[in-house]
Amino acid sequence: MHFEFLVEEPSMESALNNLLPKILDLKTDSYSIRTFQGKFDLLSKLPQRLQGYKQYLTENDRIAVLVDRDNDDCIKLKQKLEKFALDAQLTTKSSVGAAGLFIVLNRIVIEELESWFLGDLYAIKFAFPDISNNYVTKNKNLNPDEIAKPSKKLELILQRYQHYSNGMPKIEVAEKISKHMIPERNKSKSFQVFYSGLRSCYSHQR
Description:
Rossmann fold; 4 strands
């Protein structure tokens, strides 16, 4: 299979380049990542992009659309993504049900990429070894999807340990942390939904 990932920012691309080899079977499959200039840019161009894909995609191709929830209504945002795909006559995982063959996987990152990082505190610790073991142990039951402004939360954690006093460079931090992430242990439900959605592509191969 070939996977096309449509993402809204370069930091997600950096993270996926480290995460996808841990999720996909890259001995036989391949992937490409298309990065947009933010969420508005992705959503405004997505209908036309999907219509373009429709012209040449085969049943061995998959498209994964990743959008941050931010302050949007999650249900309405998902409905918008689903409509774009169905208008382009592309099946989605939600539209075909658990056992169906789909082309498009729409996934919403709750609340934003840094929530996924906060879902794996061990990865943060390995990326920044001076973070204390006590901090990781104390916060091991943290629910990352319930953290307001997770990017600010992560920045404050790193600044507490003398990193990035002038502001967190999102791409650099994404690169460092994602190298150490283990998908199965991530406590973010939105990450696990993304992870299981990708893995389900293999069970639906013909």
